[in-house]
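Page 37, top half.
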Amino acid sequence: MSKAREHVSGLYRHMAKRDTRDAEHHLAEAKHHSSLIEHHTKLAKLHSDAGEDEQSDIHSEIAQRHNAEHTRHLGLGEACAADAREMDECAKAADVGDLSKRFNLDDVMPTAATAVIPTDNPMSKIRAVPRIGQPSPVDSHDVPPELERFIKVEEW
């Protein structure tokens, strides 16, 4: 494997590990907020049963805020897990060893440029722009034979 492919594959694997750690962190935070929701909901009920409506309202509000954080962390955890799976797929795609398992690399050979860019493609009409001092390329296909000497570019 080339150094560049090793680097890219390693980078993707590193990013996959980072995203996996982030997903685990967010799921742990969601679990923590879930336990706090349960705790503050119980406290709100206890205060409500005791007739302490102000304290009950405070704990209900705290439980609602923990619920919002729980939902946020669940979403972030799922997004990070999806990113980790994508980075792992990218690492596999960058790994030549894995490619050789999926494809016969001996069959992948360069072909003629006309096989890549058909001659009827507008891109095949692109011509080089010469640098200063360089002889300009001349298309002599459309010039009548009796006028070819006027457009002939001499080699240096």
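Page 37, bottom half:
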Amino acid sequence: MKNIQTRIARAWERLIAVKARDEEEARLGRLFNILMVISTGIVGALSIDFLLLHPLGFVSSTVSLIAAAFPLAFLPLSIFCLVQARRGHIRAMVLLYVWVNLIAIGVAAWLFDGVYSPAWTLFIWNVTVGGILLAPTFSLRVTGGVVAYFLLLLLMTRSGLYTPSITFGAGREFVNMSALLIMLVSTVGLLTYLNMRSLREALETLGMKLPCASGLRNLCARARSCFVAFSNMLMTSSIPSRPTAHFLPSVRPVNEYWGGSRMNG
């Protein structure tokens, strides 16, 4: 049993391992790869959710299949980003994943039910991932863009300029609640846990290194003091017609020392 767990752990480490220039980049790369694994679960859960719409009698089989195929089409993106991030292309893959998904979710909201679309809930995942892996300001900018996009669709809907191409009808509430639960588990639960655990591990590693750095600074200070004292001894012994048994203190200049000796003599 332990051998199986060890093999699984090693396989998992190989899966999420990345080539990075420093420890912080390695931490973000490992977190990104874990999120790519989670994203495959998200698209799988969404596809199952959409496939259940027809057996439950909410929509036709055509609408159910189209809706299920939409998230599955982005499964290769998650796999591609994971593979490339393992090779060291971390930031480029984060940007690719976040922006492609933002555009895709926007298209899904446009096609499926417009301002009432379940796709609006899915923006939570992308905004959070971008804010954690790119920059905190990214989440604010994207949130503002999503709100502006929603208001635009609302205005166009009210003015009669826009009508959704596909609607879930009576199944909209079922899809909305399912998407909300999926985001609750993946973003609020798993993503928050993984990010905080990663930060705690980074802080613990930094805390272990700080005593070593402090010891190194103390060692350098002692070496510097020894060097100054030794230099002073050499300078004192090199002065002619004076006994070499008297050593100059490390904090007093040679001329002051000998000047004081002459005055006292």
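Margin note: Residues 172-237 form the longest helix (66 residues).
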